[in-house]
Amino acid sequence: MISDKLFALVLVVLILSGCGVNEEAEVKNIAPKPSTSTVVSPEITEGTSKVTVEDTGKTNVQDSNTLDQFIKKIQPPNEQLQKVLKEDLDRDGKLEYVLAFGLEKGGIDNIFVVRDDAGYHIIGKLEDPVMVAHLNTDMKIMKLDQTEQKFIVVYSTSEVDEAEGFSIFTVDHNRISNLNYNYPEATGQGSRKLEDINKDGVFEDVSYYRFQDTQKHTIITYQKFDSTGPEKTKVLYENKNKKFVYPTDPKDIIQNYLEDHYLRNRFFIHLPEMAEFIALSASPKNNFESIIDFSAMDYTGLDLNVKEIAYEANQRVFLVKSSSEEEESNQGLVFTLEKQSGMWKIMSIEMNDKL
Predict the structure, then answer these.
(1) Which contiguous run of DSSP H or E holds residue 100?
(2) What is the DSSP-derived secondary structure letter of residue 297?
């Protein structure tokens, strides 16, 4: 009996003292550290739409299963998810997702803009403005000036990488607009780029025209990315000297002069080198197009048939026509050159239209 009473007394003491019962655990609420923005490539898995979002905002946001399910729902047949971008494009406080799908890896065939607004829904599709055969290879969300507006930029190339261009889209709530696009549709060759060519925080729509002419000219034309403001031009020399080099052969002088004639008329530019070639009492007539076919300038270069028809001391005369003209025809331009101070100069240019 005494032992039972002793056991009961010990039990009461333990209960009253609280030893080992409802012991408080110290819990510290640790706030997560703010994460920095990262851009990662999409995680493309064969036959699935699981993707890592490229977050262009200030924080990283984990993709939910709901977005994965929505992507699978709208995925075009036989196409794979190529890229996902996330941004509040119209700055209304609601996120937009830009989803790119394609038949082959690295190719983009369909682009949808989706809003996270009480659930995911499509607000529109980017309609490709380029009218000739091409491949859309990449897309980005970019700031193109010093404002906070964001633009969707889609980059395009030709199948053999002889052409490159871009398209710019804006999103205003439920309206998607093509602001501008530039692609070498006429020739299928050349580079059209978005560049801050003046380094002033505003991007330009820049076109590069590279020619296989005597001086290896590259003509650059550029204008503000939204096609407003004046268009400006630069002339580069892509020869090994990176500057104008006066030709030593009379035939090369004629070739160079006619090439510059074409470039001047096409781009409305002043080429000071043209004046160095000539020593004329009167300006030559400029309707050379009726005699010379300049159409190859945009492709392989100006193809001329330059035939010497007279030679006398320091003077030489040439009949110039397009290589496509019949050999026996005398139709062409007659260039007379004279050597002055060791340099050949053009003394006259006359039309010879006699067949």
Answers:
(1) strand 96-102
(2) G
C-alpha–C-alpha distance, residues 297 and 212, integer Å: 8
Tokens 């075009």 belong to 76
DSSP 29: -
Instruction: Give the pairing of strands 151-157 and 163-172.
Output: antiparallel
CA separation (Å) from 299 to 188, 266, 289, 294? 9, 15, 17, 10
Residue 16 is which amino acid?
A: L
One-letter amino acid identity for 9?
L
Phi-psi region of 303 (alpha: psi -120 to 50; beta: other; left: phi over 0): beta
The encoded tokens of residue 139 equal 């897309």
pLDDT in tens, 199-243: 999 999 999 999 999 999 999 999 999 999 999 999 999 999 999
Place of tokens 């790119």: 100
pTM of the complete model: 0.79
Distance CA 341, CA 224 (A): 46
Please tell me the distance from the alpha carbon of residue 46 to that of residue 54, in angstroms, as a whole number. 19
CA distances from 43 to 8, 30, 61, 103, 140 (A): 67, 31, 15, 16, 17
